[in-house]
Amino acid sequence: MLLLAAAFLVGFVLLLYMVSPLISPKPLALPGAHVVVTGGSSGIGKCVAIECYRQGAFITLVARNEEKLLQAKKEIEKHSINDKQVVLCISVDVSQDYSQVENVIKQAQEKLGPVDMLVNCAGMSLSGKFEDLEVSTFERLMSLNYLGSVYPSRAVITTMKERRVGRIVFVSSQAGQLGLFGFTAYSASKFALRGLAEALQMEVKPYNVYITVAYPPDTDTPGLAEENKTKPLETRLISETTAICKPEQVAKQIVKDAIQGNFNSSLGSDGYMLSALTCGMAPVTSITEGLQQVVTMGLFRTIALFYLGSFDSIIRRCMMQKAKSQTSDKTA
């Protein structure tokens, strides 16, 4: 009986692997494709542009700082694989005025053709205790991290649906999967992208348009360096429990997953575990992916409880240290 059950299980798994490719989307061909990258003047965005350019894509870089855009353009152009490739730079704030964003996307499409892939990398992080953050900080992060992805996506989606082809990437964060101390403003804006992506994927899947949500860990970028200047001690100690990734690594994974039409894009063992734990009602690209999530959920939840316990311990220690410091100051 046990042998029969084992044989059935093995046969079922093999069947899943055989059927899985049949329901997976057809990979997007990057050679000659038009890829728009917001926040493309530095960090992950610039590395995504370089990775796509290496694979033969035409690039539109969108960011606010024109000087940084031109510097990024020169760097990206070093990675061309043919003399027909073009890097177009557009300076605009993608979070302020939808009509302006729509106009610059139209300009890009007139010059380089319809957008085949949009990668929303524009964003920023500000951390601090909930009561210490200005209300304007919540508004600012929601505007840039959420609406800054809504506006460009809204500007390209109609053409993608008409052409029955397209990829849209939302670059969230592991803080968009797990709320952490000090990230009440930042996490909320990144969690919002997940809800947008799930709803949008359900709408556009029949048109062969696929959405990817990327959840990078702390990445060695100018944005992280700026964030670390004001990061609370508790947040910094929690962040130090995982390694810092290189933006090139993150970019390669994002591009790979976007090409394949994968809904989730994560990096490393921690990223894989978080994606499995927080999958919820998220769409899957293959039956195999769904089966892996079902099988690993219990084990990953157990591991996650240990992580949460260690985070709580860090916060308690910091609280005790501050209390001792305040007591010492009073008695001095």
UniProtKB/TrEMBL annotation:
<keyword id="KW-0560">Oxidoreductase</keyword>
<protein>
    <recommendedName>
        <fullName>3-dehydrosphinganine reductase</fullName>
        <ecNumber>1.1.1.102</ecNumber>
    </recommendedName>
</protein>
<keyword id="KW-0443">Lipid metabolism</keyword>
<keyword id="KW-0521">NADP</keyword>
<dbReference type="InterPro" id="IPR020904">
    <property type="entry name" value="Sc_DH/Rdtase_CS"/>
</dbReference>
<dbReference type="Pfam" id="PF00106">
    <property type="entry name" value="adh_short"/>
</dbReference>
<comment type="similarity">
    <text>Belongs to the short-chain dehydrogenases/reductases (SDR) family.</text>
</comment>
<keyword id="KW-0256">Endoplasmic reticulum</keyword>
<comment type="pathway">
    <text>Lipid metabolism; sphingolipid metabolism.</text>
</comment>
<keyword id="KW-0547">Nucleotide-binding</keyword>
<dbReference type="InterPro" id="IPR036291">
    <property type="entry name" value="NAD(P)-bd_dom_sf"/>
</dbReference>
<comment type="pathway">
    <text>Sphingolipid metabolism.</text>
</comment>
<keyword id="KW-0746">Sphingolipid metabolism</keyword>
<dbReference type="InterPro" id="IPR045022">
    <property type="entry name" value="KDSR-like"/>
</dbReference>
<dbReference type="InterPro" id="IPR002347">
    <property type="entry name" value="SDR_fam"/>
</dbReference>
